[in-house]
Amino acid sequence: MPEIADNGRTWILSGPTSSYALHLTEADELIHLHWGPGIALADAEALAALPLSERGASFESPLDGREEYPVEGGPRFVRPALSVRTDERRGTEWSYQDFEADGDELRLRFRDAGLAVTLHYRMRGDVVERWTTLRNEGERPLELLRADSATWTLPERDDWRLSQLHGRWAAESRLTRSPLTYGEKVIGSRRGHTGHQHLPWVALDTDATEERGEVYGCALGWSGSWRIAVAQLPDARVQITGGAGYDDSGLLLLAAGESFTTPVFAGLWSDAGFGGASRTWHAYQRAYVVPDAEQDRPVLFNSWEATYFDISEEQQATLARRAAAIGVELFVVDDGWFGARTGDHAGLGDWGPNPDRFPNGLKPLADTVHDLGMQFGIWVEPEMVNPDSDLYRAHPDWVQFQSGRKRTEFRNQLVLNLAREDVQEYLWEHLHGLLSSAPVDYVKWDFNRCFTDAGWPDDPYPQRLWVDHVRALYALLDRLRAAHPQVAFESCSGGGGRIDLGIISRTDQVWTSDNTDPLDRLDIQHGFSQIHPARVMAAWVTDSPNTQLNGRVSSLRFRFVSAMAGVLGVGGDLSEWSDEELAEARRWVDLYKEIRPLVQQGDLYRLRPPAAGSSAVQYVRGDESVVLAWLQAQRFGEPVPALRLRGLDPAASYECRETGEVYRGAVLLHHGLRLGLRGDLDATVIRLRRI
Ligand code: GLA
To answer: Euclidean distance between the first and final Cα of the chain, in Å?
Structure first.
């Protein structure tokens, strides 16, 4: 519940450890007051009483760096969160209307001629959710050039540092940290999907470590093009502005009576270091974002790296029998089961089973899989079409294109224009039909190319397909989930090209990366874990040498322990695995099932980062804890340094389930645990239970 000052002009939202406060001045300017440790209303009022600026100069604005949502126009020079154009003018000069505290949500309403702007705030745990709604209450269309979700303001500090997660295909979510300098650092995607290049997340700190110090984090829940700009202003103040769309040149045309609700831009403050910030993000997503997060995800098998496009019913049934024998709980047939899809050149768009490969449809295989005691899943890529498909031959105008221009292909495919209602209806009918025609429990939903010639002839500018594609995707997922509540969904986009809070609120897990090399994965997982929980992070054990990427040879032990840090899957060609390998795999899967509640629901402590050469993570839940540790390469016979554990009770004793040895909590916390890792690519799992 927001706290409100008597004069109705100062508001505080508080979570278990933090507060967020804002204030409306006598001149109706909406000013940021505080984001950090918990404070009282009296503290916020004391902050509100301070003058806006101590310096006066005709070249600086006292509002810059202070406002909650800087609009374009008036005495401001910072990047505007809102930029609106009508036939008559550009910019916004709003006046304050009123506020409303509705449960845990605070709404502040403003108005400019014909435009209603509402700023929304909601505290969930220690995460502040912010978003904005814009409504055209006039009679003429309004052009939203830019409509960000929120602007975050940091307290004055010296030497801010920026953390971000950058990447590319097969190398996603890699953490980098650099000093923030004057000017702006802009990350985003102009590709129509979240993109492999950056996760929509930033963190700012000055001197935090993994377990100590102040960290601010912001993450955007939008699965289309997006932008986050981190600005260090001339007086060193820092603001972070983010929202849908990359450019300032036109997000949406708002017809009379129409509204636009921005995605949520969530933010948190933690004084428990990067690890504490991550745990707060994870707890927030498990509690408020991920559907049915309290249910553990099953161990899956995925056929992609095992059989690529060369699949048949009998061959998949053989794999399924082997998968069931090692303890797999969900069997997923990847690409190649539908239309004329015998390679990546054809078939996308035709969502019926390939009659040569599945003469009686998918049901016989689904029944086999179910008889083996597993759930059955399939791969789809609904937003795409191959020009060589029945769908494209029938509807060449259903794709995104510009009149008279080339239709650029990537992976021999084009993007369907999901802003079109006929396309939406086609996809609904075919996917709903598919899920009704065979007992399907799981859908891996892929998206394998970026937007390029994103046009819609005859639709006025700015064209709505960038925003409406995402809205249509969300609506389709929502509709399918409602009609088929037993079906779980995985978000995939050539690996981790569509991972954000928006898609995570509609899917049960995400495909982290097409890179299944267990060593590279440690870095990818380290970055991923900065924001998202292990509960959604799918990871497969594939073949050695690695076929997808680099030919690296690694033991089954190393591959399993790497993948067991998330939602375990197996993606190797089990028909080639020896009896010994299958037996070993069975033991790892059994072990994973035991530690699964800790991994998927527990608190994560990153004990040592992959860059250190040996690395480890620890999950803690109640009286139990598990450590997963890896050694890349031992040098000079040096033992791996003892690992100091976290999250344990110093006064308690813990029994190691692997060795039966008993350790004092205080000793594990302060002096650490010896691991005995040796050689190259070694790994271990250590379970501890409080006694
Ligand atoms: C993408 C996915 C892979 C696989 C292929 C199938 O690359 O990331 O896991 O599903 O598509 O074509």
So the answer is: 40
Measure CA 217 to chain center.
Answer: 14
Taking only the tens place, the pLDDT of each residue in 198-235 is 999 999 999 999 999 999 999 999 999 999 999 999 98
Query: Which of 168, 301, 334, when mutated, tests ligand 1's pocket best, judged by the most ligand atoms within 8 Å of its CB?
Result: 334
Q: Are residues 332 and 422 in the same domain?
A: yes
622: domain range?
A: 608-690
Domain with 240 in it: what CATH number?
2.70.98.60
Under the banding of pLDDT at 50, 70 and 90, the label for residue 414 is very high
Going by C-alpha positions, the residue among 283, 282, 278, 268 that lies closest to residue 17 is: 268
C-beta of 448 in contact with ligand 1 (< 6 A) = yes
d(CA 497, CA 307) in angstroms, rounded, equals 23
133: which 2 tokens?
């709604």
Q: Indicate if 514 belongs to the active site.
A: yes
Structure tokens at 386: 């191959």
Q: Is the CB–ligand 1 distance for residue 495 below 6 Å? A: yes
Active site residue 446: yes
Residue with CA nearest ligand 1 atom 7: 494
Give 3-state DSSP helix, strand, coil % of the chain, rounded to 5: 25, 35, 45
* pLDDT tens per residue across span 455-508: 999 898 889 999 999 999 999 999 999 999 999 999 999 999 999 999 999 999
What's the CA-to-centroid distance between 345 and ligand 1, angstroms? 14
pTM (predicted TM-score): 0.98
Quickly count: other Cβ atoms within 10 Å of residue 205's Cβ: 23
The answer to whether residues 329 and 308 belong to one domain is: yes
Mean per-residue pLDDT for 432-447? 97
Instruction: Determine the distance separating the centroid of ligand 1 and the alpha carbon of 495, expressed in angstroms.
Output: 7
Which amino acid makes up residue 632? Q
Q: Are 334 and 365 in contact (CB under 8 A)?
A: no
Q: Residue 293 and residue 285: Cα distance in Å, rounded?
A: 8
Coil vs helix vs strand at 657: coil
